[in-house]
Amino acid sequence: MTGWQEIFAPVREELDNWDRCGKQARLWLRDDDAVEPTDALTRLVSISGQADVPLLLCVIPETTSNHLRNTLEAERHVRVAVHGYGHHNHAPPGEKAQELGPHRPVEDVVSQLLWSRTKLQDLYGNRLSGILVPPWNRISPGVVWHLPQLGFAGISTFGSTHEAKDVTGLDQLNTHLDIIDWKGTRGGRDPDWLANELVQLLQRSRGGDAAPIGVLAHHLVHDQLAWAFLEELFKVTAHHPAVSWQAADALIG
Ligand SMILES: [Zn+2]
C-alpha cells in the first residue's frame, strides 16, 4: 500500500474538477448494526463529530435500550434509523439473507416494523430519522408498499437499486461506497480500490445531476485499515470547498 497522500491524490483532483465547475459534491455517512454502546461506536461518533460529518446510525430495534440512547444524548450530529427488527435472516439456506423479504406474510413483517419504529420513536423522539434501512440492504416490494403508512419517508439500500420508485411519499437515499471487504478479510477494503471507486462515483455524479453519494460503514467490524480510511476520507473532504457532508434526512423529501 502506498501512502495516504498518494492514495487520495485522485480524489483531490476530482474534487478540484467540481470546484472548477462551481459544483459541490454532496456526501453522506451511514453506519449499520448498532445495538449497545461500544468502544467502536464511541470512536465512530467521535471522529465523525470532529469532522462535522452528520451520521445516520442504523439501530437494530429488538434488543436495543436506553443505554445506547443515553450515550448518544449529547451527540447532536447523530440521527438514528430503524434497521429492520432484529436482523434475523428468514431466507432459506442458499438464498441471500433477508429479514424483510417475501419469506413471511407481509402483515407479520409490517407489524414488526411498526413495533420497531414505535420503540425507537419513544427512545429518540425527533432524532429518529424518517428513513428505513433494511438489514442486508434487501426488502420485498410488498413490504415497501406499506412504508409510508408506517411513518417512513424514505428507504436506504445499496448501489443503484430503487425500491421506492413506484411508491408515493417514499424517497430513496442509497449508499454506494462500502468500506468493508465482506467477501475477503471482513475488515477494511483496499484503500486504493476505495479511493478509485469514490473517484468514479464522483465523476458519475458530476456528469449527471450531482446526486448524493453515500458512504457505508459498520463500526463493529472496523479494523485498523477501515478506521484509517474513514479518518483520511474525513481529513481530505470535511473542509474541502467542493464537498458538503449532509444529514441523510436533509437529502430526502
Ligand atoms: Zn445490518
Q: What compounds sit in this structure?
A: zinc ion
- Oligomer description: single chain
Domains (count) = 1
Largest sheet: 9 strands, parallel
Range of helix content: 25-40%
Radius of gyration: 18 Å
What does this structure look like?
This protein has seven helices and nine strands. It is globular. Helix content is 36%, strand content 15%. The mean pLDDT is 97. Strands 1, 2, 3, 4, 5, 6, 7, 8 and 9 form a nine-stranded parallel β-sheet that branches. The structure holds zinc ion. Zinc ion (ZN) is lined by residues 32-33, 83, 87, 135.
Describe the protein's topology:
Blueprint: H1 4-21, E1 25-34, H2 39-50, E2 55-59, H3 66-72, E3 78-82, H4 106-124, E4 128-132, H5 141-144, E5 154-155, E6 171-172, E7 177-178, H6 191-207, E8 213-217, H7 224-237, E9 243-245
Parallel strand pairs: 1-2, 1-8, 1-9, 2-3, 3-4, 4-5, 5-6, 7-8
The structure holds zinc ion.
Zinc ion is lined by residues 32-33, 83, 87, 135.
Quick rundown:
By secondary structure, the chain is α/β, with parallel strands linked by helices.
Give the tags.
single chain, about 250 residues, alpha/beta, TIM Barrel, nine-stranded parallel β-sheet, 7 helices, about 35% helix, about 15% strand, binds zinc ion
